[in-house]
Design a protein that fits this description.
Blueprint (H helix, E strand, L loop, with lengths): L2 E4 L2 E8 L5 E5 L10 H8 L4 E5 L18 H14 L5 E6 L1 H12 L4 E7 L7 H16 L2 H13 L7 H10 L3 H12 L7 H4 L6 E5 L8 H10 L3 E5 L5 H4 L2 H15 L17 E2 L1
Parallel strand pairs: 3-4, 3-5, 5-6, 6-7, 7-8, 8-9
Antiparallel strand pairs: 1-2, 2-4
Helix pairs in contact: 2-3, 4-7
Length: about 280
Amino acid sequence: MPYFRYEGHRLAYTVHGEGSRTTILLPGLLLSQKMQARLASDLAGHGNRVVTLDFLGHGESDRPEDMGRYSMPEFARQTVALLDHMELDQAIVGGTSLGANATLEVAALAPERLRGMIIEMPVLDKAIPAAAIAFTPLLFALTAGEPVMRFLARGARALPRRGVPLVAELVLDWIAQDPGPSGAVLQGILFGRTAPDRAVRRTFDAPALVIGHPRDPLHPFSDADMLAAELPNARLIDANSIIELRVSPERLTGKIAAFVEECWGASGTGAGARRPQPPRAARA
């Protein structure tokens, strides 16, 4: 797996497909880039180059036990560093959950680098109570219960992955991680800001495809709906479930591929081409 250096640490990434039209896909909290591999492969099959990234503390990237390395703005800086490493003036950037919020931070940090945004399961105002309920016990387990978590991690690492469904494999990979750095990631996230302020989000003019999920308290559909209304050039699509894009992606992949094509435009084969403007807060 290729990697590049970011402030003394290794960041791992994978390139799918080829060409000048590049999309960057970012993972969810404590999950690896593997979760985006199927979507990346499908988009590559539509003639795109797609790059998946492991943030620090995730997947095959380095895992320092320093909570200062982990925040939404910091993950955005790592994403922009990937663009610099690949010598990309612009790219479509997207992600799931933590990756979705990091995408919003890229829009705040370097809006000129965005050709478009794919925002799946954003974590915003309505998700904060559920996130606190879910992540506080997990943080306690990863810190105070570190010996037990290390034992579970050794067991998960020993289990074979061949033939295991993707969702189950992602869960096993999550459990198999060293709990120390994972605890540092959670501390950094919990003590940092969740996303750019609403007033700032309203200034993001890059085309955005927002994907909302039903029946998910950590990623309530109301947050996705609110974000699509805030962003000047957004459209909202409904996923059937939290795992649709991982286990049965055809319907959503077709919509995402069409959005990617629209962002680059008929003549948009290079990094400097003009960005198209989708309808304001339209539902797809």
